[in-house]
Specification:
The complex is a heterodimer of chains A (82) and B (329). Chain A has three helices and four strands, in the order E-H-E-H-E-E-H. Chain A has 82 residues and is of the alpha+beta class. A four-stranded mixed beta sheet of chain A has the order 2-1-3-4, sandwiched between helices. The longest helix of chain A has 12 residues. The two termini of chain B are 33 Å apart. Chain B is 24% helix and 29% strand. The chains are: A alpha+beta (82), B alpha/beta (329).
Amino acid sequence: MAKNITIFTTNTCAYCVMVKKWLGSKGFEYQEVNLDTNPERQAEAFEISGQLAVPVTVITKDDDSQEVVVGYNIGKLASAVA
Amino acid sequence: MADSEIETHDVVMIGAGPAALSAAIYTTREDLDTVLFEKGVIGGLAAITDWVDNYPGFVNGIAGLELADGLRGQAERFGADIRLGEVTEIIDQGAYKLLKTTDGDMRAKVVLIATGSDYKKIGVPGEQEFYGRGVHYCATCDGAFYRGKRLVVVGGGNSAVQEAIFLTRFATHIDLLVRSKLKASDILQKGLIEQAGKITVHLETSTDSIIGVDGKVTKVAVTKQGVQSEIDTDGVFVFVGLEPNTKFLAGTAVELDEIGLIKTDAQLQTSIPGVFAAGDVRSGATMQIASATGEGATAALLIRTYLEDRNTAYLAPEAPISELKPLAV
């Protein structure tokens, strides 16, 4: 199960809206890091995902292992939060 | 599973872009039970467009994301049920269409396919290799990673020019690579002129490959009038046309044209009776948001007519009316 979820987003990213909407529809809470208002955290998002892209969703599980999903992909998100 | 146990709706719409959301505003107001399935972004390509300047009713234009959210909210206000999932198969059963979905099997009296289109790939070496790490298809998503950097934008249509202008808010300089001539609207081309210091337009320039070092894009190889050269860049954004989202229809009786768009008759009905198509996925579509919303509304009205006729065609009593007896009270 997901213990903690963090999403890296930007203001104009529609896929970020969809990830938040999907997590909300499944009853998950999350922390959002907006890279437009926190540009100093861009390097962190890149380091975690290996991509210059958002949304980046970081799911920390009960055993503290992490799974990272880049983009809006319902199948990957569902498997990562399961 | 018995038919009576399968979730059944008046209308199932595949997609939740401007065409489907507009259609849903109309069908729900007609009290037709309407479900929409969206596997991507609600609002479709409109939602990932930075700014929409040509949608009627907005004097100064509107952010694509805001327009999409307004369409969604309006459809939901009248009862549209938007589900985040996918329809993988349509099976024609006559009066009903059986749909295989991520929510399980579902039946619908009418199906509206409004899955729109996605941006095409260029298909050059390096494009796949650097996807997400220097090659992008969504400026509003990934542009913020290029503050103070140089960019290449590939394409010469409205999307390419509009997104190049949008990216000037982050990048120090943009090279716009146009394979032939600019096809963007005059107003967008004027926008390019206003950004002349920041955007260099390269006409009749083909993009040959995307080159990188240590996993990062560094150059784009191009050919202009037979002369090959390289352009230094930190990233590439691609807007070279649209590809219809119709792959899931392979193997169905829904007829497509030579580029994969859905053929319809004048009633927006596909080759399967009771299955309609509207918006950017329809053969003959103008690929404009205003056209998509208009087609969505038209489709909804034609669906209403179809449902009225369907009640006659499929649900007529077997015995002549004169021979029917009143139900016992």
